[in-house]
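MODEL INPUT / OUTPUT PAIR
PAIR INDEX: 1
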Amino acid sequence: MGAEPRAADRRGPDIARPDSTSVHVTHWYASDRSAGLALLDEVAGQWAAAPWPDGLLSFHGYLSTEGDTVLAYVQATRPTAHRDLTRTLHGPAAAGAVSYRLHTSVVLDPSGTPPGAVVVATFDVDGAERQERIVESVAKAVTEAPSAQREGMLSAHFHASTDGSRVLNYAEWTSDVAHLAFLEGAARAATLRATGATPGVRPIGFRRFHLHHGITPDRSDT
């Protein structure tokens, strides 16, 4: 798979679907883009071929724009469904995941525009109370920013890990260019201030991703 998929060709997960009560995120690291694509295709291929247990809703596989990180985002109706499938796989595809629940969604463009890029930012936090505080602070910074300062941001979906140790922001953007412009602007500075002002929260970092695989129980890879 040489070229990046166009946004119009591949739709990502419906993050806010009401039956998705359990989300599982796995990262793998690769030496370069070629290795990342091969790893992504291997993992997605095993998911597409395996019998899915009840409760799994979707698998979406991404490669970072740097080509060094593969990410899987899996939705389920029950927390054990992810492990029920990965225990039947082998190699990297059998890796464990961090389990999350969707906490808060900020939808800035309700038109359903397919994202051209997804930015995943992760925070290390000290328990459930800090999860609440950082989500509230960053979501407020995003919603209160003038629209011109966050042009191209479609949505931001904040997830809290079930063990209280992580917060993940899955943000959808129209394009890489729009996100790069945001990084230079005042709205980005406001989100950094919100993070820095919350004790017990440590940013891990972010990656910008492009979607390559979308698999559902009927085994369609869109």
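PAIR INDEX: 2
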Amino acid sequence: MVQSMRETERKYEVPSPADTSWLPELERVDGVAAVVDRSPEELDAVYYDTDDLRLSGSSAVLRRRTGGTDAGWHLKLPLSGDSREEIRSALTDTVPDALLDLTRSRTRGAELTPVVRIRSTREVCHLVDADGTTRAELCVDSVHAESLRADGRHAAWNELEVELAEDADPALLDAVEKKLRKKGIARAHSPSKLLRALDETVTTPADASDGSAGPDPEQAGAQVLAYVREQIRALTALDPAVRRNRPDSVHKMRVACRRLRSCLRSYRSVLDRDVTDAIRGELKWLAGELGAERDQEVLMERLSAEVEALPEELVLGPVAARLRVWNVVDSTESHLRSLDALGSRRYLDLLDALAVLLERPPLRAKAAKDAGKVMAKAVLKEYGRLAGRMTDALELSPGPERDVALHEARKAAKKVRYATEVARPALGKPAKSLGKRVKAVQKVLGDHQDSVVARGALRDLAVAAQTAGEAGFTWGLLYGTEQARAENRERELPSVWDLASEPGPRDALGR
């Protein structure tokens, strides 16, 4: 059993825990009525990581801590700004399986062993408002760190932590920092005790940029690798959220897979396809495994909204109940499918391949060329594929064959969009504008495809209802609504495509 909470804090350098001359200043912060002392604490934490420090290199922290009010296992994952998610588990001798799973995308299955022990003597006080509610906690720590590796080096320092209380205004941190600066107290150079301990007792942690040193920033290779690196980080960071079934996490992880695949395809002139084609194949597999869960989410949201929008007199039979039962069964099965994929050796092999791709990028000759020229050519090539597929689809008569062709055009539109995303640093507003116009086409095609999928599900639901002796009227009505929506999208598509085509992509990119 694990618990999750959001932690928002800042760290500062303090010369000595005995010097608290700055503390009364904090009572002058807006919203703070008093500074209340709490009992001191003795904390003892052992931090775990892989041999090559993959967790700390990705700004994650795993520790086993005793002492204080929150003894147990703590996994900290980075969020935005000063915030992190802290996931806690009960105190045990070994790393809990639940936390091992949540670290897997970062460790890639490598063994976790103790690397540093950090003991802290902590003086605690609370900043409280006029009602006595705690708005922030201040901790002055005397820290002693010890390497648990062969060298066994030690380090010691003092630091101040200011942690925001749950639901407190983040502006309070800025106000506190302003008072601290006036007293000569500056932000800590290291964002965490672990990173400072590693720096002073073990070694510099694995570079969080995952091999960012490379070609000239103005060259195509550097810009393509920067985009690839960003998507790999997104995929890695989203893994724990998918495992815990967090809202929209499957969708975002699947998009990261698609963006990576598309980039590796569109920029084959930069990265050697002899290496990247195999990775693209595995990304396709992963996106497919995640796809069942995401498709079910989209479909349920769509059908639920349509049922709710119907007048009560048109809902005959237990329509909403059948829809809920259907969703529970399918969403459970699809989530288990996602978990099976993330727990597989195949997934870890994919993560290893992506790590190697960044460490030893298979750059081709054009990687050293001007990014603008290389990327414009790649975007235009993808746009040409989209134009061809749109022409083919629009020439077909309505029906299943045209539905398939429109779906293929939709996938081509996504590839153009993703290609323009990679190209934005080099091509600027023209690439952004083209991507925006193509997105409008993709949106129409997407709604059309969602209608195709929805009609298939509605037919299955109608058959199940009929078998159970329930009225089929509402299911037929919903089917007709979806069919009409698809026809509207098909009528709308030519004009949307015309807008996306003018000016021509070559003129739009200034090429």
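PAIR 2 NOTE: Residues 429-467 form the longest helix (39 residues).
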